[in-house]
Structure formats: structure tokens, C-alpha cells
From TrEMBL, chains A, D:
<dbReference type="Pfam" id="PF00005">
    <property type="entry name" value="ABC_tran"/>
</dbReference>
<dbReference type="InterPro" id="IPR027417">
    <property type="entry name" value="P-loop_NTPase"/>
</dbReference>
<dbReference type="GO" id="GO:0005524">
    <property type="term" value="F:ATP binding"/>
</dbReference>
<dbReference type="InterPro" id="IPR047641">
    <property type="entry name" value="ABC_transpr_MalK/UgpC-like"/>
</dbReference>
<dbReference type="InterPro" id="IPR013611">
    <property type="entry name" value="Transp-assoc_OB_typ2"/>
</dbReference>
<dbReference type="InterPro" id="IPR012340">
    <property type="entry name" value="NA-bd_OB-fold"/>
</dbReference>
<dbReference type="InterPro" id="IPR003593">
    <property type="entry name" value="AAA+_ATPase"/>
</dbReference>
<dbReference type="InterPro" id="IPR003439">
    <property type="entry name" value="ABC_transporter-like_ATP-bd"/>
</dbReference>
<keyword id="KW-0813">Transport</keyword>
From TrEMBL, chain C:
<feature type="transmembrane region" description="Helical">
    <location>
        <begin position="79"/>
        <end position="99"/>
    </location>
</feature>
<dbReference type="GO" id="GO:0055085">
    <property type="term" value="P:transmembrane transport"/>
</dbReference>
<keyword id="KW-1003">Cell membrane</keyword>
<feature type="transmembrane region" description="Helical">
    <location>
        <begin position="216"/>
        <end position="240"/>
    </location>
</feature>
<feature type="transmembrane region" description="Helical">
    <location>
        <begin position="513"/>
        <end position="532"/>
    </location>
</feature>
<protein>
    <submittedName>
        <fullName>Molybdenum transport system permease protein modB</fullName>
    </submittedName>
</protein>
<keyword id="KW-1133">Transmembrane helix</keyword>
<dbReference type="InterPro" id="IPR035906">
    <property type="entry name" value="MetI-like_sf"/>
</dbReference>
<feature type="transmembrane region" description="Helical">
    <location>
        <begin position="260"/>
        <end position="281"/>
    </location>
</feature>
């Protein structure tokens, strides 16, 4: 229910710069996700928004109000901590009710709300358990319930589902999403699960070493990465360094020393990227871009390694000294063996050109 | 090893010397007396008995009692030097003291020693009125016990905590006794009035001295020896008034611990302590009033001669029987209720 | 690089033994043995004696009879003085711990040492300095009297409140030490979680910090409650004579040993009941840090004004708390008898120190006390830490018994403890390796050890309760033996708690008087007895100067321990 | 390097039964995974193997040696704890070196090994950092490094990668796998990430409420689930209750009240399942079993909801009152809108029959 505006914020710990010159606008009611490798500054940013760290530089605004040094308890946020931070001396119910009591709900309402949310995170019968008698995932769910139940203006979730199984994660995800859209809570989400990020987010910020690499919708981030880092970090990709051979109409032909020749469309150039003949460009091909059999950009190679992942089979294909990873949906049918020949093709619109 | 050498040499040197002078070994004294005095006496004692190694430990009378009591099965101390009559009686009744007749025993008033001579009074302690001479001269102060009840002394009187102090218990009991032992109610009434004038009961003698010196009050009841010692040997401005009607006179006693390891040496020490010479010297230097009745008056120091040791008429047996009861009554019904 | 693995399993009687369900009882048996030898054996006689006589309950009947209510009154006085003392000490101790642990400012480390100094206040001369401060003729009352030209002094510390003030000033360190150890070990993310849920500072304290400090608060409550129950001098000094200890003293003076035993038994019964209630309260909840990973320490203090407030408060607080010490120093430099009706002494002198420094006998007691205190404290550490570990981490039957036994010597008045020890160890016994301990050097350290059993035990177990057990498990899983884990993981992480208890035990040993006076001998005169002797001879200034020496000594110990704990005992999270 | 045999083990906490009658054989050198919903008893089992809990009932053997009550430090295991359990008073290096010191390696070797493993988990420059100065993921990596570096006989990993980003997770996964197969360490792995479980494990155990539901290879578990729980828990599936209409040759035709008719193969009956006409059976159809366009078991329906997950698009399709989830690989092409008609088919061999 509040927009968050982060204005040129940096955070240092001694000499270590955790977040650098961060500029960010999160709209009211938006579901915003921080993505980035471990240690890139996600938690630090979140903690600055929550008020547990003060920026070394810059300002943070909720709507138009400067909250840079406002006390955390005045911010009406709900936060799931990466380490849960549950109150070990309280039961599950007491933990969840904590925020409600502060908000002075009457006993009955508190009980109702606590019971409801506990059901929701599948902790129905655990109300009177002590925290140290819960499993890791159960603890995480208590942390989540505690933050959700207060229906805050801003919800800060630091990997809130990391210890849950896929089923539960999905259910909880849907619930978070529901609360978020029903109440219009501005939600900032940190996760390592890209599928999750893609599925839930209105927009995503990708960070590296404390610096923003790209901000955009999931589709933009996935299909139109601004740079190599984003391309390789989000989803898997085959990244090739190639030279522009020719640009004709809207078709770019690239080649490399191994004799690979590929064709792509100019509309797939990264924003701001200009290429001309002879330029070096990076090519990103998603493993799932491959299609069975011959066609545009046919790839014929030897299967080096096979990975079975349930939904699909990953083939690592050696093609003229370049190894490409291709993902083909598995249907329980016979899988190729390492050493087998394979023929696939890459539709032109599935090839992306990146600058740096 | 050297000591043994010396003592054997001594042995061969003075073959005719009495066995006593050759006495050796240890002597452990538990004392409640002033440390300087104790050291002085022991030095003198060692002049006579150089081979006796004397150890002393300074404690309150109550602590000595506790200690002797605890060590009953295997006594560590030999000689108990300085204890109130009450403590000595408790100890004697618990069989902690040796029954022994020293050479001077007849020179001591039967009132001042145990029936069976398990303890013997060493000195007399008249309990008198103590004042801060900065605040008043002896002439201005209360001259007798009953004067203490005068409302003009309200909040001027400081009393050493009564129940914990043998001295104070005796004073208070004698006040009751003075009003008639058969019916203590008059005595209680008297004490109630005293309580009304009493500003505070202090935890220990030191607190009493300090408060008196700092003029939180100006009058107290205390024993003569300590007052004189403070008056003459320190900068504190204390003085005393000897009550006209007489003072209760307490006995400070000594005894030998039953089954003591160094019983013989303890006996030697006791003899030495009651030696007329020692007693005179102690009364000169430490204002002690000896219990021995056979000391020539001339030999005694001037302060003693000036003193009219008038005693309150007291039946100590009755006192001893009633004290606990009276004090309990005082404690529950009188203390702090006078106001 | 060859691959090494830990010593593995061998099917021997030893491994069969160590894997047995009952092995834990072998582990804890030394603890019970020590308790049997040095607590049960000396103390049971008191208990038995309380039932002496034809009618075994006669003494108890007398105690509770309504005809003479002295005993009951004493019990009630002792009880409620103790309760109020606990509350006051808790407020002061926890507040100081909070101010000094949570805010960083220049001089904080100095203050955090100074704030401990009051526990070094020598028992005999120490209490007197309160009279010099707040008594009728004390500095403050007289100061106000003069300032406002009053007829009488406006106030004077007296009665129950006097007792409580003295108790607060001398015992808050129990709370301060254990609470600051616990605050160090508290997971900062809990507070953050609470604030993120909207809790104000006060609520965070009420709902999170204080409850999480429960083990340490309970530990110190127990200690303070029991010393207050067994406190003697303070009530006496302020004229509250009707207390349990006084009753015991009187009974003993009157030679009524049975009654004294009864009173002692009842006194320890009250303390044990308190202990059991506290135990029950504590066991209802869990206080172990559970967070995943290690939380980030909050590196910032939120608002500037708050910080300055904290600085000012801790400065003023410390100053007030060490006032008695300052007065003691003042007296040690002032001429005996010259300070009468003035606010401050008028004549100063170095004589008292001269007297001390020219007397070669001055140093012997200091050395004695250091030596004996050290031995006793080492014993306390070994026993206390082992017992705490067993109590918190092992599961066996008899925990309550262990707890009670450790507590008893602390709950009884010093005199009773000493007298029991004398009686038990004045003859040869197997527990003393057929030696007579009375009269020997060892009886004093033994007495200190026994009396201070609960100090290290309590503070260590409070710290242990906070420590996340899984770090121990991690160490075991990496192949570390129990002992190695204990040394490298448990001890460093509970160091602040162990250290707190150690300091308390050591300082108490240095200052112990009531028992010492009954069992010292000429070659083992402890410092406290030496001070007493000066006082007994009414060399008041010299006694105070001696007391100041003791304070300096303890100050040195405090500084050393501060150095020791620096860095290593950061957190127990 | 040791086989683990768990013989009829149960674990109770007071009244709560966490693990019940567990019977399990893990072969020497095997990579074995525990899968199951949060709170199903995975950690409890792991902790019994590690020796932190003693079973309430039953025995545990390493090879043939009874270790049920053997001290943890005698077991030569390496464990990553779900909550990391790092030593807060030590630096990163000291944490990692802890186990090596116990094994009395010399200083130089220790340094080498520590440096190597630190590089491996991408904590190169963090050697002298204090633990509380690390991010959540970095802490997790320290925990992992600490357990790996001692090269134990048995490696127990309790969600060791839950706080790492996909990239790092994959790298680390490969590293774990490498150490495991190089040294032949018996590895027991707990994860919530099914892809991970599928990709890495030799065998998987699926648990629910402390009870084993199925033990088998990833392919068995995925394609031949023994029961409904496993089918729904592992991967996503459309589970339908249907009636057997006819069994002809190896083709089973089933139908339901909504008028759905589907055909499957008898070889796809769950092990031990016998069906005859009129029986009620459960049908499991994986979302990825759907193929574009008409064919065997054609499904024509209205798209109710669309989920974009990066690699693929999930369609929730309403077909005769039944909602089916279908997953179609996305290629950045235009996606259908909710309300659109869609036609897909399900190849016969992709339909599975389950009993309970
Ligand atoms: N000390 C305990 N006392 C009581 N119950 C416990 C205790 N430890 C665990 N449990 C219960 O046992 C069950 C299994 O716990 P366990 O930790 O093994 O789950 P898990 O499978 O590891 O779950 P997760 O994936 O959430 O970590 C849970 O329901 C938990 O609540
Ligand atoms: N208190 C601190 N002192 C020093 N460095 C710190 C501190 N807290 C974090 N850092 C460093 O700052 C960087 C960013 O940390 P942060 O916790 O924000 O990472 P993150 O993106 O949340 O990572 P993860 O996904 O692993 O949780 C990390 O490299 C970390 O080591
Ligand atoms: Mg983080
Ligand atoms: Mg778990």
C-alpha cells in the first residue's frame, strides 16, 4: 500500500561495500523481487528498507515520506527474516500473535486470525508447540505466518520458502500472492528460485556485487537480458562469443572460429546495442530454444552428457568444438545415450544478441 | 631445627632451672582482647618461656564460643582469653572448658568465677554512662541511671544493639533487676522510657563509637575500660559518668579449653596472666580493673584510685535465670515502642 | 595427502559402557560425590538436630507458635526484604547491563569495570560507608540540611529501606554480571523481528529481551534472594533486628542449638522453595537461540539523543553505585575522630597508609586471601561448569536434588556453614583423605568453595541455556570428542557466563568474613579478618585503608578479566 | 565408504512420533536422497544416523557394526545442518579447518585443503571474515565446506543448498557429486528441490508423516510412483479419479462422471495394482505429458489461467468440468490468453494408473 523509493543508496560495512548507488522505485501494491547471486546485497537492501541498517549514503522514501532513519517499528512492515528470528521462548501461536497484540486486536479476533493463518501454512495442529520442537520447514512457516498475519503496508520476504517442499512452496506462493493482491500490499521478495521469481513477480531486480544489473518484468529479464550477467544468471543459456558476418534486412548472421554460423533477428539485439559487420557480439541461446530435428540454424552434434531432470532431459551436445546445452521435454520414452548423434535446430527468434 | 638446638642447649645450660621455664611447644589463644595488649602480654610471656610458641587469633566472644563449640571433637585452641560471663557459662555448660584450680584461685571473688573454676574472671567491667565530651562535660550529663529518662535526652542516646551484645543484655537486665526482680513490669516500664529517649540501636561497637563521635547522639551506655582506652589513646572525644547509684559490674573471663592439645602451656599462660605484676601493668596501660582482690592498692595506677567502684546490688543467679526471658520480652514488647 | 579419519569404534567393554543408557550416571557421579562429602555430610547434622528432643517437632512447634511471634515475624521480615532486594537489584543490575552492553561510547569499557567495583566493597568497613553517605550524619543528609538551612537532616537511611538500599548497592552486580553475559549472547535478530512487527522499545524489552534473559535473571534472583535471606550486617546496621539470621544468632548465643538448627532448616527450606518455584517457571519455556545461521550484529544505534541519554545515564548510574567506594577512600585519607559534624572530613592524613605500608604483616593476609580465593575459585569453576553442563545438557534423574544441594550452602548464614564445616572436618574423615582440616590451610579454601558453589554453576547454566545446542553437535559430527568440543566450542561460547560466575566467586572469596573468622588460623589470616582486626582495635582509618587495598586488588582482577574476555566471549549465538 | 542399514527404527518425542518403523538400506558409496514434505521426519532420520538422537526403537548399522548408540564423533561422518550450526566465535577458515585439526593434519595440509575447498564454494576472499559478517548463502557455503573438507565416510547433507542461487547451486551440486563419486563417500541428502534430487541421486526415499512411501531410482519414483502421495508429491501431476470401462489387450479405457474418456497402457499400472472393469482407479497425467495439437486422448478446452515460468508456460485448462494443468515449452512466442480455446493430446504411454 506504499510505494518505496530508494534514492542513490549505498551501504558499507567498514571497507566492504555491500550495496552501491542503488536507485529503485517500487510502486505501491507491486510484487517486486530481488534476484542475484548469494552475497550480492539483497538482504542488506531489504534490511535498509526495514530500517535495521541505515544507508551509508542516500535516502529511502515510503510514498513521499523520508524514512531513512525512521525506527523499524514505525514503518508498518512485515518481514520474514532469512534466519527466521522466531521467538524461542514462545509457542507457535504466541509467535504469530505477537504483531497482532501490538496492534491491539481483541483476544477473539487474534485467535481467529492466528488460527486462520496457521491453517493456511499447514501448521493447524501445531499451535501450542514450542519452536524448538518444530522442523526447519515448520519454523520457516511460522516466520511467514507471523509476517503475513499483521497485513502490513509493505511485506519484506527474505527467502521465505527456501526450506519448503515444492508442493507446499507452491501453495504458500499462491497464498502470498493472494494476500498481496487482495490487500494490495507492496511486496519485496528475495528468492533464489527463479521459477518462483518469474511466476510471482510484477518486476524483478537483478543485482550483482551490490550493483543493479537490470530491472524489468520477468519476460523482459528472461528474454531481453541487458547484459551477459543477466542472461547467464537467469535461467540457463548457451553463451557464445561470435563475430558479425553480415546484417541484411532484419537478419544478422554471426560466425565464430569453430566455423559455427548462426542467424538471428535484429529485434533481438539488447537495448542500446548497435552492431556492424566484424563486431564481436555475445549470443545467448536458451537450452529450451532447441527444437527436435532439422530447420533454421540446424545443429548436428554428438551427445556428451545426459541429465534427467524429471520434466525434461538435458543434452550436452558437442558441435564443432563448442558444447551446447539443449533441453528437450522428456516423456518417459527412451533417452539417447552419450556418444549418440543428435540433430536439433534453433528458430531464429530464439537467438539473442548481447553487448557486454 | 634451630629452635630445637637452642632449647637443648638451654636445657644443658640451666640444669637447675624449673621445669616450667623449659616448657616448650605451642599455645593457641583465642582472644577477644585488644590486639596490642595481647601482643604485649605474649611478648612478656615469651620472655619467661622463650620456647613456647604462642599463636593467637582475635575474634569476638561469640565467635570464640562458636569456634570452640565446633572444634569440640578435636580442639584447636587452648586458651580462651576474654569472654563475657554469659558466653563462658554457655561454654561451661556445654562442657567446653577445663575444670582447673589455678594457684591464685582463692584471690578471686566467688562472684567472679565459675563454681567449678571452669572459667575465671580476669577483669571487671563497670558499665557506665558514656558521653561525647565535645557536646557536654561530665557535669552536664546525666548523673545516674534514672536521669537518662529525662526528656531532655530524647534522641541523644545511642545504644549498642542489645540482644547481640552480652554487655548490653547485662546492663538492661540489671536495670530491670534494680526495679525489682519479682515483678519485672516496673523494670519494663523503665526500659520503655529509656527506649523513648533512645535514638538508635547500632549494629556494633564501632558503629556506636562512630555515631557518637559524629554527634548523631551524645550519650550511650558502655563499659568503662573501652571508654578510658578511647579517651586516652585515641583522638575520639569520649568521656564517662559513673552513675551515682552504682554500676552493674561485669566480669570478663578466661578459660582453658577442655581437652586442649597444649593444656600445660595454657595453664602456664593463665598463671602468668594473673600474675600480680601482669595485672598491675595491664591496668596501667589498658585500664583494666583486676579481679584479684589481693593486689595492693598503692601499686595500682591513679585512674583506678580515683574511681569509686560502686556496684549495683545484683543477684547474678537470678539475673542469669531471667535474662533470656526479660530480653525476649524487651525485644518483642518494648524495643522501638517507647515513642 | 592421505585421507584421515577419526578413531572409530572398537567393541570393547569401554565402548559398551560409554554407550550404555546409564553411562550418564557414571559421568555425574563425581558431582554427587563432592556434594555428598562437602554438603550432605557436613549439613545433615543441622537438619537432624532440628528434630532433637523428645518431641521431635517441638522446635518447629515453637517456631510457628503464635504465642511468641518473634520467629514468624523474623521469617516474614527476612522474606519480604529478600523479595524487595531481588526486585531492586534486578532493576539496577539489568538497567546498567543494558546501558553498558547496548551502547558504545568512549569510556564504556572503563565504566563497565567501575560498575563492578561495588562487589569489591569489603563487608565490614563497606557497610559503614553507607552510614557515612546516607546515614543521619552522612554526607548527603547533612549536605541537604545545610543547603536548605534545615533544623534537622531531611532524610536518613533507616530501617527496611536502609537494608534494601545496602542490598541493592552491594548485590546488583549479581544481576549485572549475568544479565550482561546474557545480553551478549542474545540473538539480535529477535529484537529486529519484534520491532519489524511494530513493537516499541519498551515492548521489545518486556516481551522479548527480559523473557529471553529469564535463565540469567532467575540465576541471579536465586543468588540475591538467598544472600538477602542470610544477610546479617545490613539489617543489624539499620536496626531491623528481627530477621532470621538474628534469630539464629540469638539462639546460638543462648546455647539453644536445637532451635538454631530448626531456624536454619526453615531458612534453607524457604530458599529451596523459592528455588523450586523459579525452576518450574524457567522450565516452562525454551531460551535456546534457534535462528538459522549467525545473525548480523546490529551495528548502529538508532538515534543520537538516545545515545547521549544512555551515556549520561550510565555515567550517573556508575557514579552513584561507586559512591560508597569513594567514601571509603575518603575515610581512609581522613584523620580518625576529626570528621564529626562536618559534611566532609576536615583533616586529611596519610597516616593510615603509612601504618599499613610500614607493617610487614599487612601483606601476608592479602597474599593468603589471593591464594585461598584462587584455589577455591578454581574448584568452583571446575565443579560449577561441570554441574551446569550436566544440568542443562545431560538427561538424568535427580536434577532437582543436584540443584538443591548446590544451593544449600549459599542459602544458609555463613556462621552456620562454618560451624557445620568445623564440626564435620575437625576429625579425620574419608572425605578429607584422613586429614584433620580444621587448623590446616585447606579448610578456608574448602569453605569458600562450598559456600560459593552456586555462583559459577548458576551463571554458567544460564549461558548454556542460551547456547544453540547444534553447534556442539556440529563439532561432534566433525569428529571432535566431547572434551575437545567442550574446550573449543562450549567454553568459548559460554565464556562470558563462566567468567561472570568466576568473578563473583573470586571476589566473594576475597571478601568472605563471617565463616572465615571461625576457621582461620594464624598462618592463614585472610584479608577480611585482618581488616576486622584493625576495626576491632578501632583503628578505623587504617581498616578503611586496608579495605581500599582490597578494592584495588579486586580492581586489578577485574581489569585482567576484562582483558581476557575481550574478543573471545563475543557472543553465544 | 560405508553402507548404512536402518533396522525398524522409530523415533518419538514424548507422544509425537517423528519416524515410524523405518527400514532402509543405503549401499556403500551410494548417493541417497530423502524427499518428503516439511516435517515428515527427514532431519530426524538424518540425526539418528549422525548419532544426535538415539532411536526409540530399532537399530542402526554402518556396514555390519551396530552404531545405534555410538558417539557421533566416532562415526566419521560429515554433516551439514539445516541451520548451519556454524561456530560463531571462529572465522571462516577456522570453521572449515576445525575437523581437519581434529584429524591431526599438519598445518600446511590444512591450509591447502581449506583454501581449496573455500575456492570451490566461491568463498575465496572470505577466509578471515567472521561468520556474522557473511550473508545467509555464504554461511551455508561455509557449513558445506566444513563438512566436505574432512572427506568423511558418510556425508549427511540437510538441505545444504537451500539458500544458494541456481547457478551456484548447480556448481556446488556438481562438486558434491564429484567428491562423492571420486571418494565413493556414501551420501545422504535431504532436499526440497526435486530437480536436484532427480539429477543427483542414485536412489530416493519418499517419506510422509514419518513413514516411507517409496524407495527407488529417480526414474522409478517419477514415472512409476507406487501411490497417489508419491505421484502428487514428486513433480506435478493431474490426478483424476476414474472408473475402468474396459481392458482390451494392453489398453485400459477409463472414464468419469464428467464424460472424460482416456486410454492408457497396462504396463503403466502401479506395481501390484490389479484392475478389472468397473474398478475405481487414480489416473496420473504429468503436465508435460501434454503435446500440442490433436492425437491420442485429445483434450480440447478453455484456458482458465496462464503461468509463465521461464522455460515453459503452464496452462490450466477446463475440460468438461475437470481442470487439467498442461505444460508447454515456451519459446518467447505469443502466449494464449485466458479464455482462449486450446487443443492438446496425451500420448497413451504418458498415462499412469495408481491404486491408493
Ligand atoms: N524435539 C522435538 N520435539 C517434538 N517434536 C519434534 C521435535 N523435533 C522434531 N519434531 C517433530 O517431528 C517431525 C519431524 O521433524 P523433522 O525435523 O525430522 O522434519 P523434516 O522432515 O526435517 O522437515 P523440514 O523439511 O521442515 O526440515 C515434525 O513434525 C516436528 O514437528
Ligand atoms: N555485518 C557485515 N559486515 C561485513 N560484511 C557484511 C556484513 N553483512 C553482510 N556483509 C557482506 O555484504 C555482502 C551482501 O550481503 P547480503 O547479506 O546482503 O547478501 P545476500 O544478497 O542476502 O546474500 P544471500 O543470498 O547469500 O543471503 C556479502 O558479501 C556479505 O559478506
Ligand atoms: Mg540474504
Ligand atoms: Mg529438516
Amino acid at each position: 500500500m506504499k510505494a518505496v523509493h530508494i534514492n542513490d543508496v549505498s551501504k558499507k560495512f567498514g571497507d566492504i561495500v555491500s550495496v552501491k548507488d542503488l536507485e529503485l522505485d517500487i510502486k505501491s501494491g507491486e510484487f517486486f523481487t530481488f534476484l542475484g547471486p548469494s552475497g550480492c546485497g539483497k538482504t542488506t537492501t531489504l534490511r535498509m528498507i526495514a530500517g535495521f541498517y541505515y544507508p551509508s549514503k542516500g535516502k529511502i522514501y515510503f510514498d513521499n515520506q523520508d524514512v531513512t532513519t525512521l525506527q523499524p517499528n514505525k514503518r508498518n512492515i512485515g518481514m520474514v527474516f532469512q534466519n527466521y528470528a522466531l521467538f524461542p521462548h514462545m509457542t507457535v501461536n504466541e509467535n504469530i500473535a505477537f504483531g497482532l497484540e501490538i496492534r491491539k486486536y481483541d483476544k477473539k479476533t487474534i485467535k481467529e486470525k492466528v488460527d486462520r493463518i496457521r491453517e493456511l501454512v499447514h501448521l493447524g495442529p501445531y499451535g501450542t508447540r514450542k519452536i524448538n520442537e518444530l522442523s526447519g520447514g515448520q519454523q520457516q512457516r511460522v516466520a511467514l505466518a507471523r509476517a503475513l498475519v499483521i497485513e502490513p503496508d509493505i511485506l519484506l520476504l527474505d527467502e521465505p520458502l527456501s526450506n519448503l517442499d515444492a508442493k507446499l512452496r507452491e501453495e504458500t506462493r499462491i497464498e502470498i500472492k493472494r494476500i498481496q493482491s487482495e490487500l494490495g500490499v507492496t511486496t519485496i521478495y528475495v528468492t533464489h528460485d527463479q521459477t518462483e521469481a518469474m511466476a510471482m513477480s510484477d518486476r524483478i531486480m537483478v543485482m550483482e556485487h551490490g550493483v543493479v544489473k537490470q530491472i524489468g518484468t520477468p519476460q523482459e529479464i528472461y528474454h531481453r537480458p541487458n547484459n551477459r550477467f543477466v542472461a547467464t544468471f537467469i535461467g540457463e543459456t548457451n553463451l557464445l562469443t561470435m563475430k558479425v558476418q553480415s546484417i541484411e534486412d532484419n537478419i544478422i548472421t554471426v560466425t565464430n572460429d569453430n566455423g559455427l554460423v548462426l542467424q538471428g533477428l535484429t529485434e533481438n539485439l539488447a537495448p542500446g546495442l548497435q552492431v556492424s559487420n566484424g563486431d564481436e557480439v555475445f549470443i545467448s541461446i536458451r537450452p529450451e530454444a532447441f527444437e527436435n530435428g532439422p530447420g533454421e540454424n540446424t545443429v548436428t552434434g554428438i551427445v556428451e552428457l545426459i541429465e534427467f531432470t524429471g520434466v525434461s532431459v538435458n543434452y550436452f551436445i558437442k558441435w564443432n568444438d563448442t558444447t551446447l546445452k539443449a533441453m528437450i521435454i522428456s516423456r518417459g520414452t527412451a533417452i539417447l545415450q552419450a556418444g549418440d548423434m543428435i540433430e536439433l535446430h534453433i528458430p531464429k527468434q530464439n537467438i539473442y544478441f548481447l553487448g557486454e | 631445627e634451630e629452635t630445637t638446638n637452642e632449647s637443648t642447649q638451654g636445657d644443658s645450660g640451666t640444669t637447675e632451672g624449673t621445669t616450667e621455664e623449659n616448657a616448650s611447644g605451642k599455645l593457641v589463644i583465642y582472644t577477644g582482647r585488644d590486639e596490642n595488649m595481647v601482643q604485649g602480654v605474649i611478648e612478656k610471656f615469651n620472655e619467661r618461656y622463650p620456647d613456647i610458641e604462642v599463636e593467637y587469633m582475635t575474634m569476638g566472644a561469640q565467635q570464640i564460643l562458636e569456634r570452640v563449640r565446633g572444634e569440640k571433637a578435636n580442639p584447636q585452641g587452648d586458651f580462651w582469653w576474654g569472654g563475657t560471663q554469659a558466653a563462658m557459662m554457655v561454654a561451661a555448660n556445654e562442657d567446653l572448658l577445663l575444670q582447673w584450680d589455678p594457684s591464685f584461685i582463692d584471690a578471686i571473688d566467688p562472684l567472679h568465677k565459675d563454681e567449678q573454676n571452669r572459667w575465671v574472671g580476669e577483669m571487671l567491667l563497670p558499665e557506665v554512662i558514656m558521653i561525647n565530651s565535645d557536646v557536654m562535660s561530665p557535669e552536664e550529663g546525666p548523673q545516674d541511671w534514672d536521669d537518662l529518662l529525662d526528656p531532655k535526652w530524647k534522641d541523644e542516646i545511642l545504644i549498642r544493639g542489645v540482644l547481640a551484645s552480652g554487655t548490653m543484655r547485662t546492663i538492661y537486665s540489671s536495670m530491670i533487676f534494680r526495679q525489682g526482680a519479682d515483678d519485672p513490669s516496673k523494670g519494663y516500664e523503665w526500659l520503655k522510657q529509656l527506649d523513648a529517649n533512645t535514638k538508635e540501636y547500632t549494629q556494633d561497637p564501632n558503629a556506636l563509637y562512630l555515631k557518637l563521635a559524629r554527634q548523631e547522639g551524645s550519650i550511650s551506655l558502655w563499659n568503662l575500660q573501652d571508654i578510658l582506652l578511647k579517651k586516652h589513646t585515641t583522638d575520639y572525644t569520649f568521656d564517662f559518668i559513673y552513675p551515682e547509684s552504682g554500676a552493674p559490674i561485669l566480669v570478663d573471663a578466661v578459660g582453658i579449653v577442655n581437652n586442649a592439645k597444649n593444656e600445660e602451656n595454657a595453664k602456664l599462660f593463665m598463671e602468668f596472666l594473673f600474675d600480680q605484676e601482669t595485672m598491675i601493668e595491664l591496668s596501667k596501660e589498658y585500664y583494666q580493673i583486676p579481679t584479684r582482690t589481693d593486689i595492693a592498692a598503692d601499686a595500682m595506677p591513679d585512674w583506678y584510685k580515683e574511681l569509686d567502684l560502686k556496684s549495683l546490688e545484683i543477684d547474678w543467679q537470678v539475673m542469669a535465670d531471667k535474662e533470656a526471658e526479660w530480653m525476649e520480652y524487651w525485644d518483642t514488647n518494648i524495643k522501638g515502642k517507647g515513642k | 595427502m592421505s585421507k584421515k579419519s577419526v578413531d572409530t569404534y572398537e567393541a570393547s567393554w569401554w565402548s559398551r559402557l560409554t554407550q550404555s543408557r546409564y553411562f550418564v550416571y557414571i559421568l555425574i557421579s563425581p558431582l554427587f560425590l563432592i556434594l555428598f562429602a562437602y554438603v550432605i555430610y557436613p549439613f545433615y547434622s543441622t537438619f537432624i538436630q532440628s528434630f532433637a528432643g523428645d518431641n521431635q517437632l517441638a522446635n518447629y512447634q515453637k517456631f510457628f507458635s503464635l504465642e511468641s511471634t518473634a520467629n514468624l515475624e523474623a521469617l516474614w521480615n527476612s522474606f519480604y526484604i529478600s523479595i524487595i532486594s531481588v526486585i531492586c537489584c534486578a532493576v539496577v543490575g539489568v538497567m546498567m547491563a543494558f546501558l553498558l552492553e547496548r551502547y558504545d561510547f568512549p569510556g564504556r569499557r572503563l565504566l563497565s569495570i567501575l560498575v563492578l567495583v561495588p562487589m569489591a566493597l569489603p563487608p565490614l568497613v563497606g557497610v559503614l560507608s553507607f552510614t557515612f553517605l546516607y546515614g543521619e550524619s552522612g554526607i548527603f543528609p547533612r549536605l541537604f540540611q545545610q543547603m536548605f538551612q534545615l533544623e534537622d537532616v531531611p532524610f536518613a537511611l533507616k530501617g527496611i529501606w536502609g537494608v534494601i538500599v545496602v542490598h541493592t548497592f552491594t548485590m546488583y552486580t549479581y544481576f549485572y554480571l549475568t544479565a550482561s553475559a546474557a545480553i551478549k549472547g542474545l540473538d539480535p535478530s529477535l529484537e529486529e523481528a519484534a520491532t519489524s512487527l511494530g513493537a516499541s522499545r519498551i515492548r521489545v524489552w518486556r516481551k522479548i529481551i527480559l523473557p529471553m534473559l529469564t535463565p540469567s535473571l532467575i540465576a541471579s534472583s536465586l543468588l540475591v534472594f538467598m544472600v538477602s535471606m542470610a544477610s546479617y550486617t545490613a539489617p543489624l546496621m539499620f536496626g531491623v533486628e528481627r530477621t532470621m539470621t538474628m534469630q539464629i544468632y540469638l539462639s546460638r548465643t543462648n546455647g539453644n542449638l536445637d532451635m538454631a538448627a530448626t531456624q536454619s532448616t526453615i531458612l534453607s527450606f524457604v530458599s529451596i522453595t523459592f528455588l523450586l518455584i523459579m525452576r518450574w517457571y524457567q522450565n516452562r519455556r525454551n531460551y535456546q537461540n534457534l535462528s538459522k545461521g549467525i545473525s548480523v550484529h546490529r551495528s548502529e544505534v538508532s538515534s543520537k539523543p538516545l545515545k547521549y541519554l544512555a551515556v549520561t545515564l550510565s555515567f550517573i548510574g556508575t557514579l552513584i553505585l561507586i559512591l560508597p567506594i569513594l567514601v571509603l577512600i575518603l575515610i581512609s585519607f581522613s584523620k580518625d575522630g576529626a570528621w564529626t559534624i562536618q559534611i566532609l572530613p576536615t583533616e586529611y592524613t596519610l597516616d593510615h597508609y603509612k601504618a599499613l605500608f610500614t607493617d610487614e604483616r599487612t601483606w601476608r593476609p592479602i597474599w593468603n586471601s589471593l591464594q585461598m580465593g584462587f584455589i577455591a575459585t578454581v574448584g568452583n569453576i571446575i565443579f560449577g561448569v561441570a554441574a551446569a553442563y550436566a544440568m542443562v545438557r545431560l538427561s538424568f534423574k535427580g536434577k532437582t536434588a543436584l540443584d538443591i544441594l548446590i544451593t544449600i550452602p549459599w542459602a544458609l548464614p555463613g556462621t552456620v556453614v562454618a560451624v557445620n564445616l568445623i564440626a564435620a572436618f575437625s576429625t579425620e574423615s574419608v572425605f578429607t583423605f584422613n586429614q584433620v582440616l580444621i587448623g590446616s590451610f585447606w579448610i578456608l579454601p574448602l569453605a569458600y568453595f562450598i559456600r560459593h558453589l552456586p555462583l559459577v554453576f548458576r551463571s554458567t547454566s544460564a549461558s548454556l541455556m542460551q547456547l544453540d545446542q547444534s553447534v556442539e553437535e556440529a563439532s561432534r559430527s566433525l569428529g571432535a570428542s566431547w572434551w575437545y568440543t567442550f574446550r573449543r566450542i562450549v567454553i568459548p561460547l559460554t565464556l562470558s557466563g563462566v567468567l561472570a560466575g568466576t568473578l563473583l566467586a573470586f571476589v566473594q572469596s576475597i571478601g568472605e568474613f563471617v565463616a572465615s573468622i571461625l576457621i582461620y588460623n594464624t598462618s592463614t589470616i585472610p584479608l577480611s579478618v585482618a581488616i576486622f582486626q584493625k576495626l576491632y582495635a578501632f583503628k578505623f582509618g587504617t581498616a578503611c585503608a586496608y579495605g581500599v587495598l582490597q578494592i584495588i586488588l579486586i580492581l586489578i582482577v577485574l581489569i585482567i578479566s576484562e582483558r581476557l574476555s575481550k574478543g573471545s566471549a563475543g557472543s553465544a549465538i
